[in-house]
Specification:
- By secondary structure, the protein is mainly alpha-helical.
- The chain has one domain.
- Helices cover 72% and strands 0% of the residues.
- It has 5 helices and no strands.
- The protein is globular.
Length: 148
């Protein structure tokens, strides 16, 4: 006797339990939103250092760019965290992370001492983009301000 068990027939998979799915959407959304809140606050606390880093990376008007980065991180991070305008916030953060990654983590340009750390940051950001794309497509879930 053969039993075919897959996500649609096995009662113990998350796909079979909508409450678990909604809870996991909440947890994922909150964790990604929290990431941007932490780094937005950090950029405020170490504003001069952030400006110096943006200057080193060659950003035009580094002070204005740091302010813009802080606004994006905090506004979209809060929106994602609470599930308000989640899809818009996620798309905005996708654009932000793509630009930040391509500007700050071009690991192929670094010497041997920085190659691996920069490559690690590059691919961590790629994974964050993946999570943001998931939020953009799936929406906030039931446990959110938007409730969709």
């Amino acid at each position: 006797m053969s039993t075919n068990l897959n996500a649609s027939t096995t009662p113990y998979t998350p796909a079979a339990n909508p409450a678990i799915n909604q809870t996991l959407l909440l947890v994922g959304r909150v964790l990604i939103g929290l990431l941007f809140l932490i780094f937005g606050v950090r950029s405020i606390m170490y504003f001069a250092g952030s400006v110096g880093y943006f200057t080193k990376l060659g950003f035009p008007s580094p002070e204005a760019m740091v302010v813009l980065a802080i606004v994006i991180q905090l506004a979209a991070g809060i929106a994602l965290f609470v599930g308000w305008k989640t899809r818009w916030a996620a798309w905005l953060l996708v654009a932000y992370v793509v630009i930040a990654t391509l500007m700050a983590h071009r690991y192929w340009e670094y010497d041997a001492t920085q190659y691996v750390p920069q490559m690690t940051n590059f691919f961590k950001n790629v994974a964050i983009i993946g999570g943001l794309l998931y939020s953009a497509v799936m929406g906030p879930g039931r446990y959110s301000v938007d409730k969709s």
